[in-house]
Design brief:
Bound molecules: zinc ion
Number of strands: 23
CATH topology of the largest domain: Glucose Permease (Domain IIA)
Length: 315
Amino acid sequence: MKSLKIILLLNIILIGCVYTYADSSTLPAVLVPPSVRRGYPLKTLILMSDSVSNILIELLHGGSVLFKTHAFPAGTTKNKHIWIGLLGIPSYLEPGAYSIRIIGEGGARELRYRRTVNVINVRYNHEKISLNTSLTELRNRKDPLVKEQTKELIKILFNFDKNALFNTGVFFKPVEGRMSARFGDRRLYSYADNRTAHSIHNGIDFAVPVGTPVHACGDGRVVFADNRVITGKSVIIEHLPEVYSIYYHLSKIDVRKDELVKRGKIIGESGVSGLATGPHLHWEVRVSGVAVDPEIFLKNKIIDKSLILSNILEQ
Ligand SMILES: [Zn+2]
């Protein structure tokens, strides 16, 4: 009964979703929402009575693992271990039924859990972007440096550090300004030589003048602050294990790699550096390496850790 009470209280913690659980009377208990929108993070909560060293969360379709992440420990109280998993669901994933598999390793009791999760459709805008000769050249450049920088970016965004617990609150809007492109926009690039290419917009663009102060959207650690060929002067901040915010096309960077920043701190100024057709800030949020809609985080806390702990302590 006590466990059921805890579970019911935990249902209100992971905001915006209705959760079901594997077993209400004994631990481990696993909470996974029955559905998730594409372009959103799937939030999972696991309550363990004994410690484990590793919890793997996988999204499967037709027996194949499509995406995966790890859960991270979010506190221990009254001999109960709380683990949270955040799995980014790509905006391009076909809506339909998928499986979530959770495997805990290194504990006295084995944790194995599986359930169906429905990925719900979200409709995205379509837009056409014409690139002039120099931007066409930049986007198609076969530069080894671009390849190297892409590899470096992937390495950063897929780095899982279970101790990176900096931010769990509502994000701060990095600039005030008109949104000129939304997350998930389906883009058709029209090149100067009349060729075309498709792409998906992974963030939000704010049309702001060059020199507009850009704020960190949450507490975190700067994991990248440098110039890149395509994205110009760029900053990446780690907020939680495998949760990163990204700021592109800056004119000035005011932070250094490994610097700890507070929510709202000015990290640089917006600009038009790299592949940009006009002055704007590109703001992006990655969860388990996958781009998700940053607007979600302006409305809801990613995790309310203090609420989780205080509710459990009340039992
Ligand atoms: Zn953009």
